Amino acid sequence: MIFTFEGAPAVGKTTISEKLNSDHDCYVVPEVNKLFGKENRKSDLWYYQKQIERCQLSILNQSSPTLSILDGDVFQPIWFSSLFPDEDWGDFEKMVDFYRDMIEKTEISFPNKYIYFHTKERVRALRETGRSKLRGKNAEEIIEKIDRYRDFSISQREYFSALKDEFPKLVIFMESSDKKVSIQKILSYSTVHKYNDREIFEFIIEWCKKKQWG
After folding, report:
1. Is 125's pLDDT higher than 90?
2. Which of the ends of the chain has fewer CB neighbours closer than 10 A, N or C?
3. How far apart are CA 208 and CA 206, in angstroms?
4. DSSP state for residue 65 in the 8-state scheme
5. Calpha distance 73→62 (Å, rounded)
6. Which distant-in-sequence residues (6+ apart) come within 8 Å of 185 by Cβ?
7. What is the C-alpha to C-alpha distance for residues 28 and 18, in angstroms, rounded to an integer?
8. Cα Rg for the chain, rounded, in angstroms?
9. Domain boundaries, the chain
10. Residue 64, pLDDT score
11. Model-level pTM?
12. For position 150, what pLDDT does the model report?
């Protein structure tokens, strides 16, 4: 099976995926910048293509001992453009055409489940402060990142809530307060959804358009 882990920065999704990898032999596909290098990004199309490669890696390793995990959604560019409408995430229609073509060619598909991790904002802020200090960021940079993703986490949850309402078996919400409990729950999931990739995709496009343009 293939699971995608999502949630705002510092909610614990990467920590849990690494623990699943080390303790349960789950195959983990890191996010694009970590896997391919942020400095190698040459264009928006390059970023989209790398998401396809991530998806292919998860498919090739979905028969791993336990499951294959995508740390971050391969469809992220689509909904990021609507959650950050004031930022340049590339031409939306061009992006949609690219992904739609890849779906038609079965080069990309949706996971068996999205695990959406969440926690209290004060907890997330403390986690972000701790990890940002380890990365050498100063107080101003830390506050800026915490503030940037405070509103983002609200909109992101709204997006995954809408996705869950439309496709109930596709999305699971999970509070990331206890790693051991979270891991046990994740390993217990065995059912897979039978939704059509094209239907999910078209729903996402319509949601994003309403979010961005009303």
Report:
1. no
2. C
3. 5
4. S
5. 16
6. 174
7. 7
8. 17
9. 2-200
10. 66
11. 0.89
12. 77
CATH says 2-200 is which class? Answer: alpha beta
With contact defined as beta carbons under 8 Å apart, do 197 and 175 qualify? Answer: no
Distance, in Å, from the CA atom of 45 to the CA atom of 98, rounded to the nearest integer, reads 9
Cα-based angle 150, 155, 156 (whole degrees, multiple of 5):
95
Q: What is the pLDDT of residue 136?
A: 86
Query: Can you tell me the distance from the alpha carbon of 137 to that of 149, in angstroms, rounded to the nearest whole number?
Result: 16
Sheet holding 113-118, edge to edge: 27-29, 68-71, 2-6, 113-118, 171-175
| pLDDT (tens digit per residue) in 38-96 | 777 777 789 999 999 999 999 999 876 779 999 999 999 999 888 877 777 778 999 99
Alpha-helical segments (H) within the chain = 13-24, 32, 44-60, 76-83, 92-104, 121-134, 139-166, 179-188, 197-213
Asked if 34 and 74 touch (Cβ cutoff 8 Å), the reply is: no
Nearest C-alpha neighbor of 99 from the set 83, 82, 79, 69: 79
> Rounded to an integer, what distance in angstroms lies between the CA atom of residue 32 and that of residue 73?
10
Question: Is the Cα dihedral 108, 23, 192, 208 positive or negative?
Answer: negative
* The pLDDT value given to residue 66: 76
Question: CB–CB of 55/14 below 8 Å?
Answer: no
CA distance 76 to 112: 16
The pLDDT mean for the chain works out to: 89
Spatial separation of the C-alpha atoms in residues 122 and 124, rounded to whole Å: 5
